[in-house]
Amino acid sequence: MKLISHPAFQTASGSPVVRLGQGTWHLGEQHARRTSEIAALQRGIALGLNLIDTAEMYGGGRSEALIGEAIRGTDRASLYLVSKVYPHNAGRANIFKSCEASLKRLGTDYLDLYLLHWRGNVPLAETAACMEELVSRGLIRHWGVSNLDTADMQELAAVPDGAHCVTDQILYHLASRGVEFDLLPWLESHQMTAMAYCPLAQYGDLERGLIGNRGLTAVARRHNASAAQILLAFTLLRDFVIPIPKSSSPEHTEDNAKALEIELTAGDVAELSRDYPAPTSKTWLDIV
Ligand SMILES: NC(=O)c1ccc[n+]([C@@H]2O[C@H](COP(=O)([O-])OP(=O)(O)OC[C@H]3O[C@@H](n4cnc5c(N)ncnc54)[C@H](OP(=O)(O)O)[C@@H]3O)[C@@H](O)[C@H]2O)c1
């Protein structure tokens, strides 16, 4: 099992977090899919996928409420719950109310990790100070950011307590590798993790032709694996990167969990890189 070695990525009961999380964007938005979505999350938990990623934005709070329902009956201390605050709520005026509302919807009294969803107009120093206050009040255990590029991370590291940030959640998949040039090396050298969102490129929606790509298909065939599993195995290559694929069915969740057992060879990576090469210069951070 691939585990995260970073000290901030332990559950409250002291168990390490598995290096494949469960994304939840759009979960909880359609009543007809509720049963399958809850079953998907519960299957993931049963398979050991103890990190669940959400945000106050997702479904206007309905994703958090769905997670709350899915985890009722599971020992809270065995889970690692991540939520995000809107940029316009990430200052002293609103962050405490926002965090408390997320906790209420999730049916818990603390978050393991709370992220600034993307950078807005609130100064980073104010957000960092508020995050520290949330930690000292016991409402969150750790904090981080999302969608910040290298220059933003450098700015954050320079504000008081900015170095307490433990992660940057960023878009990263085989067909969007720009972060390999400078952001991933920066995060690694500052002992932070990178949470890889859209690791499946929304199953090809973000990159036409990705799922049927011949390199991806050939590598998948060699490993007797699905295209999704190989895409996840690619993002798992660096041990400080945590992919958080979203699944709405137990079948997809099971498929994804098996990616933790796949070890790509240098030959596999070369074949995957033929059509999706590593960057050779700085490109701006991709976001959705
Ligand atoms: N911080 C940010 O700004 C940000 C932005 C975007 C996303 N995120 C987070 O990252 C998570 C993942 O990103 P995402 O949901 O946009 O995209 P994604 O995980 O790359 O792709 C999700 C899509 O892949 C499909 N899928 C999942 N497993 C599959 C499998 N084994 N075989 C075939 N299809 C499969 C899903 O279908 P089904 O739903 O039908 O299973 C869904 O359509 C989000 O849910 C969210 O938690 C964060």
Question: In a nutshell, what does this entry contain?
Answer:
The protein has 10 helices and 7 strands.
Could you explain how this protein is built, in words?
34% of the residues lie in helices and 12% in strands. The protein is α/β, with parallel strands linked by helices. The protein has one domain (31-273): Alpha-Beta Barrel (TIM Barrel), CATH 3.20.20. Strand 1, helix 2 and strand 2 (80-85) form a beta-alpha-beta unit. 45% of the residues are buried. The structure holds NADP nicotinamide-adenine-dinucleotide phosphate.
Order of helices and strands: HEHEHEHEHEHEHHEHH
Provide the CATH topology: TIM Barrel
Quaternary state of the chains? single chain
- Can you name the CATH architecture? Alpha-Beta Barrel
Strand order of the largest sheet: 1-2-3-4-5-6-7
Main sheet properties = 7 strands, parallel
What is the global morphology?
A: globular
Number of strand segments: 7
